[in-house]
Amino acid sequence: MMRRDNNPFRAIGAVRLGMALAAFAVAALIFTGGCENKTEVVLDPPVVTSVTPESAAAGDTITISGTGFSRIPSQNKIVVSACNDPDADCDRVSVGLTGSTTELRALVPDGSFSGNLRVENRELLLGGGPVGVPTPSVPSNWYPIDVFLNPGDVAKVFFSSESYDYSIHTEGADDYLLILFNSASTSDDNETFLYSVGIDVEGFGVAEGEEEESVEKVEAAPGLIKRYDIGVKMRREAAEHLKRISEGGAKPLETETAVSKIQGAGAVPLAVDFNVYSDPEGSNTEPSSYTVVTADLKYEGTYTLLYVDQNTTPTQLSDAEAEELGMIFDTSIHPTNRGAFGSESDINHDGKVAILLSPVINAMPCPGGDCIILGFFNPIDLHPSHVSPAVTNGMEIFYTLVPDPSFGGADWKEESIESIKSTLAHEFQHMILYNYRVLIYGEGLISLYMEELWLNEGLSHIAEDLNGFYSDNIGRANLFMGAPWGTKLTFRSDHSLENRGAAYLFLRLLGDLYGEGIYRSLVQSHYAGTVNVERVTGTSFLELFGDWNAALYLSGRGITADPRFNYSSIDLLGDFLPLNVTEINLPVSSIGAWQLAMGPKFIRLNASSQISYDVTLGTSYGSLNAVIIRLN
Questions:
Q1: Closest CA to 357 of 289, 433, 298, 284
Q2: Which of 429, 506, 563, 609 is 20 to 30 A from 311 in CA distance terms?
Q3: 547 lies in which domain range?
């Protein structure tokens, strides 16, 4: 059983609440019949005098006795708070089921942890209030409540304070999982926050602290091609270019107007000169960053044109291999992505998407080395009227390398062909999202509605999965599982493999919980990032993040059948590397280490006997949050 004792925030909260109630009870103004008929009503807040039973678990029915409750049970808001903090994220809420003005029956809210309970009366007062003004919430006093956890129960404590005390009382050798994450908002993806866990075991005292390593990065999983996503840079540069133009900046000084290399339906040219972005260090709006290649048509499908650079040899890519790539995109990837996310643009009115394979992509140096550029979608191709003709092809087109066996032998060639397919699925999501966010909502010039990097990339990794390309996502996720505290789910610039693995796993669970239609809703939205996720799911992001953290440990273990904590689309235990969990064998010890914001730390507290212990959490600054799970 878990209790919360001697909370330093309880007294502070009580003082604040008493002052608020005193002020509120002086006078509550209720307007009826217009400004002339103003009536002043003294409103007494409800009072909680007892809660029965004294100990209960989330989902159990409790009886709340007192006075001043709403005569309509459902208009009584039951709030259980583990920290009594003004931050509503700390509150767990349910409503009255049955009762009267002196007694309520209600459920202990899901995710509750020991703390205090109060009743907020939201009854529409007699005579009503001003039009458009919400009915005031009338809070009662706080009353202590002991919420215990059954095996498999998940409690969540979200708060904004820098420290928090709570107690766990075991009834035998009960083990708990403590998940800590810092939700501080920061633009620096690598900014770290210090957390500390102090464990005071009855009869033993506080053990000496054990300092862990600082934030860790894990080496790439064996066999995982380290891709460099040059498309991130290209989308950013395109957005900056459009912003300059929208703010009145001069257009390129060109005498020639850019036109689409392929225009309208009808005969498709057998050979085309394409502008290919070839300098990762250069801007995609500068002609010097491009190489012109001549490519031949190798495949024409219902929705696809596939061209191959004339400098490609049959050893690098045969006509049969090129045709297979085109057919896979036309008959499988294209319909799958359209069904999952929506439609791409068609600025040249030919009803097709082009694919260009060229050794120029093979030759592109990978920034930082030890990686490879497999392919990309260049947004500048969709803005021919706003850029130089030398930097755009004025059409929907993807660029990929050719699977040259000289890079790594025949096995590498076969593997890279599969990677090209997954890259096409990945980049096609980016193209579809760009159509909605910039071309439609932004009317082709404004990037205001563009999706945040972490969610845009996560959706593209989901596109790989939906098309049956799983292996690279498993590799990225394994990097995250090896050191989850060293990742940042909501990354803004650091699109490293482990951060992408976190985004993939988070969105994979959202698809399991809300259905895969959620991916289309996230793409076709005017919102971005965490706000987009909250609008689409109707749930706070902290709540979703906490549930996801719990699922990373609980999924497939048989501890709980709750779908919020179990993946249905992937076998997390069978196909992925084990989650990195710090084991603490009580009655030792205390630990402290660093973590990135939105990077969860998993700590298992193993009790070897019937003992009681207090756990104190702390952080250097920011917003430390806790998820507590009873495991047995």
A1: 298
A2: 429
A3: 151-216+476-632
